[in-house]
Task: inverse folding
């Protein structure tokens, strides 16, 4: 197995862990024809306890998980995939999984799904571009996909470097789509009109670029999660600068840029929120008072109010926190479990998806959200929703509880 395949499998294992952690007591692997395959193929990058200690899944969800693991490099013979899926579905059916809590309010929501062409690709980090298309990264299958939301047509683009593990997406002013090659250590650019790719290699010790974002001057900023770095790329010259984060490990994750051009990011495991000086790349950190906090995804409104979701697998309550940027203090807050969250604000609009497939909104007027779910992309349209709690204007953090 190549190093890049192992890296992608570790990412897949992290996803599985987020879906199964801390739910039920461990159970032994039952007897069955696929037991030996599970014992070998499913222990390449994670322990069996992620299967035996989880809450189980429906047959459809096990099918998706097995497809993803195989796409990521798990050594399961093609003619045994169905047997492995059936074995896991029967041996570990879905147990006591928390159900979504409906928040009262005049909310009208519709869902639309598009099934992506490549099975097991794990569509990731959707991006709605100005021309009306919806883009996604197929991280496990080395794919960038483009959805025509009017016709449903999906076109896939394959980066020339195999096993790139495309992750985050962002659009530049010319309509080009940039991405982080999470498994191959480069920043990529796709020109949609002709399908041409360009690659910008980052230093070898910055192995896993994560979240990309353009500032107002056209500079591309990015986090490098497990390598404990952040970086910037000047598309005009190709110049790249990468710096170490002050706290290690802190796993810099989601990123936003305020109206003055200052990048902020979540230090996922520190736990801290940090700002990068756009000129010197000096980093200032704010420590969150709860050592168990796990700030992961982050969003910012047009008036520089920062929101972040706190992902703590050990906590069952869910909260959203808000800070006005720039900020000098971080008062008390509560932990949350937002899992693989996508926060996309329009004015004072915040949407999020949770580990139990919740979709939640705050102070919504008219918002469009795209998020990942199984092997489909989904779009949510909502109008005239309201949340009873006002946002804080004093620069402090507020907590928005949305239930379990």
Result:
């Amino acid at each position: 197995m190549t190093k890049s395949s192992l890296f992608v499998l570790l990412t897949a294992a992290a996803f599985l862990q987020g879906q199964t952690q801390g739910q039920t007591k461990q159970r032994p692997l039952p007897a069955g024809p696929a037991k030996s395959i599970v014992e070998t193929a499913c222990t390449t990058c994670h322990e069996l306890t992620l299967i035996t200690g989880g809450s189980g899944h429906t047959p459809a969800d096990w099918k998706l998980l097995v497809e993803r693991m195989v796409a990521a490099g798990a050594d399961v013979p093609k003619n045994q995939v169905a047997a492995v899926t059936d074995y896991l579905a029967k041996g570990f059916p879905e147990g006591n999984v928390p159900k979504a809590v409906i928040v009262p309010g005049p909310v009208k929501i519709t869902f639309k799904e598009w099934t992506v062409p490549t099975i097991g690709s794990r569509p990731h980090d959707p991006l709605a571009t100005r021309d009306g298309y919806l883009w996604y990264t197929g991280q496990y299958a080395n794919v960038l996909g483009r959805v025509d939301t009017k016709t449903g047509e999906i076109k896939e683009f394959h980066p020339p470097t195999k096993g790139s593990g495309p992750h985050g997406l962002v659009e530049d002013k010319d309509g080009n789509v940039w991405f982080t090659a999470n498994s191959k250590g480069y920043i990529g650019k796709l020109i949609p009109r002709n399908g041409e790719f360009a690659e910008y290699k980052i230093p070898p010790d910055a192995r896993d670029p994560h979240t990309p974002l353009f500032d107002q001057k056209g500079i591309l900023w990015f986090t490098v999660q497990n390598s404990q770095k952040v970086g910037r790329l000047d598309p005009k010259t190709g110049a790249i600068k990468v710096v170490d984060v002050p706290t290690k490990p802190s796993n810099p994750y989601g990123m936003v840029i305020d109206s003055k051009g200052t990048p902020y990011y979540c230090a996922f495991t520190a736990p801290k929120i940090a700002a990068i000086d756009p000129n010197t790349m000096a980093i200032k950190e704010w420590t969150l008072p709860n050592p168990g906090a796990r700030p992961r995804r982050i969003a910012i409104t047009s008036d520089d109010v920062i929101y972040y979701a706190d992902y703590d697998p050990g906590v069952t309550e869910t909260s959203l926190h808000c800070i006005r940027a720039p900020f000098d203090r971080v008062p008390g807050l509560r932990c949350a479990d937002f899992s693989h969250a996508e926060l996309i604000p329009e004015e004072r609009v915040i949407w999020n998806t949770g580990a139990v497939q919740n979709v939640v909104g705050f102070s919504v007027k008219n918002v469009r959200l795209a998020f990942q779910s199984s092997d489909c992309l989904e779009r949510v349209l909502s109008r005239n929703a309201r949340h009873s709690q006002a946002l804080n204007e004093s620069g402090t953090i507020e907590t928005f509880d949305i239930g379990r």
Q: What stands out?
A: The helical segments are 3-20, 35-41, 49-52, 59-72, 81-91. The CA atoms of residues 185 and 207 lie 5 Å apart.
